[in-house]
Amino acid sequence: MGFTYADLFAGIGGFHLAADSLGGECVFASEIDAEAQRAYAANFELTPHGDIKLADTSDIPNHDALFAGFPCQPFSIIGNRLGFEDIRGTLFFEIARILKAKKPRMFILENVKQLTGHNGGHTFRVILDTLRELGYHPHWKTLNALDFGLPQKRERTIIVGFLEDVPFAFPEPEKSGNLKDVLEPDDAIDPKFFASEHIVKKRANLHKSAFTPGIWHENKSGNISSYPYSCALRAGASHNYLLVNGLRRLTPREMLRLQGFPDSFKIVCNDRQTRKQAGNAVPVNVIQAVLKAAISALKQEF
Ligand SMILES: C[S@@+](CC[C@H](N)C(=O)[O-])C[C@H]1O[C@@H](n2cnc3c(N)ncnc32)[C@H](O)[C@@H]1O
Are residues 122 and 158 in the same domain? Predict the structure, then answer.
């Protein structure tokens, strides 16, 4: 099934990769960060528009689907009433504004797992009520990248909505991925990715891993644990937050693989930028599975 889509808060194109693999055609993308725009343009031959707040809806082509992994901005600005008038000033308002004007048949939104519990559940209720007010039937679930072929524990709230009341069901967990498929061979790793001897020794004194390969994770209190998969990549994490076998950082290519980006994805930005971009991205496999289920639900309706 061919369909058109708008890619909001596009980052480096996690939604774009998933949608194109299922017959999608991107008609509009928006991303404010110049380096992410550059990476997107190098890979998709389409330079995203900048700040979505400045986009006039008359300049956005009509589309069948809208995708947005919107930033996990604090929603403290949301007032006490529920619905559209309550969300002004938030980036979610920008999504609602475009849904209201363009009325795509479906959307997929992605955010952190904690979104559903934020402010005692009030934020999420406002989001769902706003979507209903706009005429959509929203469905939501927390999905984990680990359940969709990727060796990364990354839990995210996914909201899928349709104008029609279609029989949508979220995909069931599939298989988990294998770290061995993600890690580059040791002899191909640039020495700059290895942690200092001091850090390696300090970690080894604190932790013995049961897993090889394994990813060692340092939490906020400095405790070390390790798993046969990666903990969630984070855009703003400290440099040595995740260490492969307690020895070295992940390379940019490995981080992109952990998010389901194929090796054909061109890396055009420096390590620091690519690390931030990979940490911000949506796992491609998760969106592929959700979008497949959404397309199948739409087909059953017609
Ligand atoms: C959570 S990330 C989404 C990443 C994307 N799903 C991907 O796969 O790479 C949110 C993105 O929204 C962008 N952003 C934040 N404010 C924006 C705005 N006002 N207009 C457009 N993009 C914005 C950020 O630069 C960031 O790349």
Answer: yes
